[in-house]
Design a protein that fits this description.
about 280 residues, alpha/beta, six-stranded mixed β-sheet, binds fe (ii) ion
Length: about 280
């Protein structure tokens, strides 16, 4: 891994340790590849990193593009791989997921699709920004209503909101053309509730961090292929797969960083112009 974390082994019991593991792009075939990368193997390696480095893990968020080929089998692989962590795994769909297949397959108590979740002083809200047949994101009225309802219901909990698509542009034209399209509607709600501390997404396959008034925004590397930041056109970045960790304090403070595997995936097709 390229970065160590500063989560003490004997952290205060009211702190939370949460991981975001995103965009694994699994296939029905365990040998399936994305731009030369065996996505099953790289997810397995990232989960092993989580197992080695985060013994006091509370739960994991998997923020979309779980399966690349819409296969039911891909979701079964996901459940099997994550089962070694022995903590709850909360999943939400991305533009590559087939939402109804995902809901049907992720049925175990450990690996599930959930609207929101409260633990200690924190609340977590998981939104579905996927649109069938589109790479862009959109939060339907039902999603926005659910967000508002959750925020109304838990006013005293520090809150992290998670979705797949980036809610602000990250400075890369091609990927920003597939951002969340109703960003203003989302921020109108978030800005009205002072307990919201973090907004977190997948989709961009790169580390990203931004402060928007009191709200912290986070984007995260994929467990397979990385996209080079700041590029107008699709470009692969020569960085290893990784994850993001969050240390969430009882008083609402957030510490976070990304952590990566030691090595680039074998056979990564760095010069690819798209997928
Ligand atoms: Fe993705």
């Amino acid at each position: 891994m390229t970065a160590s974390h500063n989560l003490p082994k004997d952290r205060p019991t009211d702190d939370l340790c949460v991981l975001q593991i995103t965009d694994p792009h699994l296939f029905a075939d365990k040998d399936g590849q994305l731009l030369g990368v065996n996505t099953y193997n790289t997810l397995q390696q990232v989960i092993q990193l989580a197992l080695d480095e985060f013994p006091l893990l509370d739960f994991v968020i998997v923020s979309g593009d779980l399966v690349h080929d819409h296969s039911a089998k891909g979701y079964k692989h996901l459940q099997e791989l994550f089962s070694v962590l022995n903590v709850p795994i909360f999943c939400l769909p991305g533009n590559h997921d087939e939402s109804h297949v995902m809901h049907l397959q992720l049925d175990s108590l450990a690996c599930c699709v959930k609207r929101d979740f409260q633990l200690k002083n924190w609340s977590f809200v998981f939104l579905d920004s996927s649109i069938a047949g589109s790479e862009k994101g959109f939060l339907k009225p039902a999603e926005l209503d659910a967000l508002q309802h959750s925020l109304e219901s838990h006013p005293l909990q520090h809150t992290m909101v998670v979705l797949h698509h980036q809610a602000i542009h990250v400075g890369s034209t091609w990927i920003d053309n597939m951002a969340l399209t109703n960003q203003a509607e989302l921020f109108t709600i978030l800005d009205a509730y002072s307990q919201v501390r973090a907004l977190v997404w997948g989709h961009i396959h790169q580390a990203f961090q931004h402060q928007r008034a009191s709200l912290q925004l986070f984007g995260t590397p994929s467990t397979c292929v990385q996209f080079k930041p700041g590029e107008d056109k699709f470009q692969i970045d020569a960085l290893a797969p990784g994850l993001r960790w969050f240390k969430l304090s009882a008083d609402g403070r957030i510490e976070s960083d990304v952590m990566r595997l030691h090595q680039l995936p074998e056979n990564l097709q760095i010069g690819s112009i798209g997928y």
